[in-house]
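Hi there, hope your week has been kind to you so far. It would help a lot if you went through both lines with me. No rush at all, and the record is pasted right below:

***
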Amino acid sequence: MLNGKTALVTGSTSGIGLGIARALARNGANIVVNGFGDPKEIEAIRAGLESDFGVRAVFIHADLSNPDEAVALVRKAETDLAPVDILVNNAGIQHTDRIEDFPPEKWDAVIAINLSACFHTMRAALPGMQQRDWGRIINIASAHGLVASPFKAAYIAAKHGLVGLTKVAALENAKQHITANAICPGWVKTPLVVKQIEARAEAEGLSIEEATRKLLGERQPTERFVTPEQLGELAVFLSSEAADGTTGAAFSMDGAFTTW
């Protein structure tokens, strides 16, 4: 389905990003892996994509809080592998606090990685997509790009902004075969969410299982985690020719999180 296409997936060394990278590779896309982690584990991920799916895969490190490095990531992908046909902005960080207690440096860091980096990679990738008259931008927002919760001011501001940025890109490129869509997951059992569960368990004197049930029960009516594999299949559809008329949308995959 995606044979000959090249996909850059930020934050793809674990969690949602890795699930999306594997789904795209399974459908024939060459993959640029990006993220943090143990170098041996990252090499195993990269090599696994090649051996499991018969595609080419490269790893490129970038500090996405730095605009120059975000742009350089796209440029290096072009030289090390191929022009970027599919850009998946997935990398993200989190910090929780009341607004009046929120450290400004944490606000800046969350906005930089969760929103500004997406702008910079899009800015770098779009001219090539426009020249080739084909491209797919998939921004991994969140259910919190559509609704709010307390203590997550920076994350929610960034994810709401990312949904808006996605719509602007869709409008600006609507006359070409370039689409821009957002995926808005609910709770996914990623390393980021596991840390939140552990913090809650410690703060409330709960077991990990009890904290998990409380987390899901409060906002996700299915009381089941969305999986990276499910999100990967949605990304495959949005990257396909079948989705050529699908642009400017924010797709909820959230176990009815935003239906309350």
Observations:
- The chain has a mean pLDDT of 97.
- The longest strand covers residues 178-185.
